[in-house]
């Protein structure tokens, strides 16, 4: 293994899959060369823009054609990763495919079949490290996605390694995280000390490890809103629009589209002379668009455990004096792709942003189309992006300010509420970092902010040896001391031996105290398997040689010779059978022991009852050229092979040749059922209304 370690993550989102390749120095090399400050930091993860590749559509679109997911989707992503990772490092490079909200919406059976095919294709077409499909190829809950994003954000901003440079007051130094994709939205933040104590059971305990093996621990609240991404929110909006208009109305006025634009319900632009059955007609009224998208927040839903933000989901109170949020994905794209001018070096300003959106969305579609052709908003802006942006902007504004409660910087007077204003942001932004209530970002220090980076930080941190034997593992779980029952390990190597599937590494690892007994156990298992593979006659000869070696010769008493044979069927002869074996060069043969009725034998065979229970010897001068074998007695062929004493193959861990069949445990994480109204959050112990709403973070999700 060289000085560099690599990791590959495929982010399988609802609209496409993006492969990320990350690299970091081997911990042994870092420890030899690092200064004391570096030793107290997390592993340094690096990536490059050209190491990333995205393809469309999303992996969930292959649910009904799983045979195509490999050649039509995964092949190009694997080739890209193999071109980046050096050939001699591939076998030591872990690969993960972690799917998000698009796959969460699939039924259980379709989802699992698709994941199984992805895993088998990846193993067959690459040599990347893939020891456990359940942990490496899975659909992660929205909470896990949000926590990974929180790790990535704070890692890139430097708040983990240098908290003194990010003092937000009240002993708080971390940043909040907001993410919005096509199907879901997430929030993750560390509450202030008062809220953290009040809602301790709602928090997740996260543990990382520095280069020197010392730990870092954080208590984070994280939750996710499924169907609150921009695409799913648009689908819900159109459904309400159709219901409000009535079935007889074929042309639905849509204030979220530029005036004069006609589209189908699925977003396809229509020519002026077409007469579709049901379609949308843009009216270009952005204020009305804001009003019609507000009900989608579901702010009035019952809240079983106060306080709540959206859809009745509990969220601790957010202190915007110390909780400064960074937003990625749609929070960035919708505020910068068309409205980018003047925003590259400036914090998000609600008033300025809303004015720009109002100006753009009030245009008629012909004017917008001319601007697109002239690259008025840059070469990346096409027709689809232009007509979708008004709905997205209204949804982002409602989510941020009416939903989550981000102060409207540039419009609201925040001096009395002690919120950070635009003037303070511009004065201290460069020296203090992101001190505004909300800041959309795409890259920090030339590295894209992605939840996949958070996953790799956790994995690389877990590879660092701990600084003591009693050190707790890297990972996350419920906010309780020690290792909680729902603790999520970032890699299969760290799972307990019984669950890891890597027993051979434990047995043969150079430093493992189990190495010597492990080797002996392995040799014993090989010998035992070979013994089972032998035919019955060979096992009989081996048995006699072993017993003769220990002075259990043919002239010893019958009881001694049956020490094993009379107890274990595959070592000796079955009780209810007769066997006559003549071997080349052998002058002895025996009649097997026969059970009488008092020994529980079958009453159906009168010959069995009349046979004496004894052994015979015979010496002859001529051996037949063919070895005959005669059997009779009660032989139930339906119960499997009598020679081995094995039942039917469906209920026995051995195959027809006597070799043990290898099975792999899929029990590496204990699944916890999600309640029908849980929305992916975990209950506080003191709240009887939420006692049944528990959710694992990394356990593969079930149907919502």
UniProtKB/TrEMBL annotation:
<comment type="similarity">
    <text>Belongs to the GDA1/CD39 NTPase family.</text>
</comment>
<feature type="transmembrane region" description="Helical">
    <location>
        <begin position="516"/>
        <end position="535"/>
    </location>
</feature>
<feature type="compositionally biased region" description="Low complexity">
    <location>
        <begin position="592"/>
        <end position="605"/>
    </location>
</feature>
<dbReference type="InterPro" id="IPR000407">
    <property type="entry name" value="GDA1_CD39_NTPase"/>
</dbReference>
<keyword id="KW-1133">Transmembrane helix</keyword>
<dbReference type="GO" id="GO:0004050">
    <property type="term" value="F:apyrase activity"/>
</dbReference>
<feature type="region of interest" description="Disordered">
    <location>
        <begin position="589"/>
        <end position="622"/>
    </location>
</feature>
<keyword id="KW-0472">Membrane</keyword>
<keyword id="KW-0812">Transmembrane</keyword>
<feature type="region of interest" description="Disordered">
    <location>
        <begin position="643"/>
        <end position="704"/>
    </location>
</feature>
<feature type="compositionally biased region" description="Polar residues">
    <location>
        <begin position="676"/>
        <end position="690"/>
    </location>
</feature>
<protein>
    <submittedName>
        <fullName>Golgi apyrase</fullName>
        <ecNumber>3.6.1.5</ecNumber>
    </submittedName>
</protein>
<dbReference type="Pfam" id="PF01150">
    <property type="entry name" value="GDA1_CD39"/>
</dbReference>
<keyword id="KW-0378">Hydrolase</keyword>
């Amino acid at each position: 293994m060289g000085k560099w370690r690599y990791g590959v993550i495929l982010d399988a989102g609802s609209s496409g899959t993006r492969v990320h390749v990350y690299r970091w120095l081997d911990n042994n090399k870092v420890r030899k060369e690092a200064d004391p400050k570096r030793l107290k930091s997390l592993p340094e993860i690096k990536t490059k823009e050209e190491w990333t590749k995205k393809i469309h559509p999303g992996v969930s679109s292959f649910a009904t054609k799983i045979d195509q997911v490999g050649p039509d989707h995964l092949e190009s992503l694997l080739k890209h990763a193999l071109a980046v990772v050096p050939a001699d490092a591939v076998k030591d490079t872990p690969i993960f495919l972690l799917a998000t909200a698009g796959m969460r919406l699939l039924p259980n059976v379709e989802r699992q079949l698709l994941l199984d095919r992805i895993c088998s294709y990846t193993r067959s077409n690459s040599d990347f490290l893939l020891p456990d499909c359940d942990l490496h190829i899975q659909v992660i809950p929205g909470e896990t996605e949000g926590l990974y994003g929180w790790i990535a954000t704070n890692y890139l901003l430097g708040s983990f390694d240098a908290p003194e440079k990010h003092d937000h007051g009240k002993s708080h130094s971390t940043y909040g995280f907001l993410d919005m994709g096509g199907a879901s939205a997430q929030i993750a933040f560390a509450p202030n000390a008062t809220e953290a104590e009040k809602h301790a059971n709602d928090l997740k305990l996260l543990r990382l490890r520095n280069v020197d093996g010392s730990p870092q621990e954080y208590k984070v609240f994280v939750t996710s809103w499924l169907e609150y991404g921009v695409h799913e929110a648009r689908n819900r909006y159109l459904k309400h629009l159709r219901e409000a208009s009535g079935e007889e109305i074929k042309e639905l006025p849509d204030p979220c589209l530029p005036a004069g634009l006609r589209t189908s319900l699925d977003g396809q632009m229509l020519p002026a002379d077409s007469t579709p059955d049901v379609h949308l007609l843009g009216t270009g009224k952005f204020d009305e668009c804001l009003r019609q998208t507000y009900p989608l927040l579901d702010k009035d839903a019952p809240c079983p455990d106060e306080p709540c933000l959206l859809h009745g989901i509990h969220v601790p109170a957010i202190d915007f004096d110390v909780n400064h949020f960074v937003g990625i994905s749609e929070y960035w794209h919708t505020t910068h792709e068309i409205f980018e001018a003047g925003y590259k070096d400036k914090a998000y300003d609600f008033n300025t942003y809303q004015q720009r959106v109002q100006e753009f969305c009030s245009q008629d579609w012909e004017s917008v189309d001319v601007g697109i052709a002239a690259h008025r908003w840059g070469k990346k802006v096409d027709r689809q992006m232009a007509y979708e942006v008004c709905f997205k902007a209204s949804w982002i504004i409602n989510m941020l300010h009416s939903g989550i409660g981000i102060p409207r910087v540039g419009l609201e007077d925040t001096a009395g509420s002690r919120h950070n204003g635009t003037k303070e942001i511009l004065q201290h932004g460069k020296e203090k970092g992101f001190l505004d209530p909300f800041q959309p970002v795409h890259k920090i220090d030339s590295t894209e902010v992605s939840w996949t980076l958070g996953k790799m930080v956790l994995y690389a941190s877990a590879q660092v040896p701990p600084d003591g034997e009693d050190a707790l593992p890297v990972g996350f779980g419920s906010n309780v001391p020690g290792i909680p029952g729902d603790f999520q390990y970032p890699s299969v190597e760290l799972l307990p031996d019984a669950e890891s599937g890597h027993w051979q590494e434990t047995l043969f690892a150079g430093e493992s105290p189990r190495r010597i007994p492990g080797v002996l156990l392995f040799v014993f298992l090989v010998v035992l398997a070979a013994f089972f593979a032998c035919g019955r006659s060979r096992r009989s000869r081996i048995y006699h040689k072993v017993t003769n070696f220990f002075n259990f010769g043919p002239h010893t008493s019958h009881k001694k010779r049956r020490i094993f044979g009379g107890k274990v069927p595959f070592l000796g002869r079955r009780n209810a059978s007769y066997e006559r074996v003549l071997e080349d060069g052998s002058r002895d043969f025996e009649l097997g022991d026969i059970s009488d009725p008092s020994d529980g034998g079958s009453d159906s065979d009168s010959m069995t009852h009349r046979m004496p229970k004894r052994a015979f010897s015979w010496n002859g001068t001529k051996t037949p050229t063919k070895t005959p074998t005669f059997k009779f007695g009660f032989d139930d062929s339906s119960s499997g092979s009598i020679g081995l004493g094995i039942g039917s193959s469906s209920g026995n861990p051995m195959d027809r040749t006597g070799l043990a069949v290898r099975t792999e445990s899929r029990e590496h994480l204990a699944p916890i059922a999600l309640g029908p109204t849980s929305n992916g959050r975990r209950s506080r112990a003191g709240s009887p209304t939420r006692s049944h709403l528990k959710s694992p973070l990394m356990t593969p999700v079930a149907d919502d």
